[in-house]
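Just curious: can you write a single protein's sequence together with how it folds?
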Amino acid sequence: MLEEKEEIKMEDKELEKESQITNEAQEEPILDQHEQSSAKEDEELNNQEETNVENDEIKSLQERIEQLEKELEEKEDRLLRIQAEYDNYRKRTRNEMVALKEYGSQDLATELLPALDNFERALQSNVTSEDGKSLLQGVEMVYKSILETFKNAGIEQIETVGKEFNPHEHHAVMQGNDDQYDSNIVIEELQKGYKLKDRVIRPAMVKVNQ
């Protein structure tokens, strides 16, 4: 009888031990599954953080690229403006050089015109003495010399009498009534006018037929 009780106790212990092993075996997959789930969540969280960091870096790079593109565009515009200003300056300088070459004698001619007027009035003087005639010949030589110098510089007298009145070249100060001329024709020159190539230095003072 005692032996039977001991066997029963041993069997109970074995059963209890087997039950404990079974429970432990059942708990292990649950723990492994929980650890796997936790590890997966950590991995996803890390991936999300990495993605956020990458997105932030990409956004920062895009903003930097846009800023650089804007700065480049501003510099290109500034360069184009500078180039345009330089081209205008070069054209203006070239035009000024051409004008100086073509019309550089205008100022000197303008200052000499009053002297030419005096020569012309002197030549219209009525002298009878030999000394006066000799002096008048010298004045005429100087006058013709100045006119020749003017011609070499491109300065010419404006045509007047018999020409149609031109407000750009003629300054009408009087009107006349001469049957020999048509209307609006210059019939008398009161003061000579001069032009340098295509530029009028001084318009001729004229009388125009009605």
Summary: The chain has a mean pLDDT of 81. Strands lie at 155-157, 170-176, 186-191, 194-196, 199-202, 204-209.
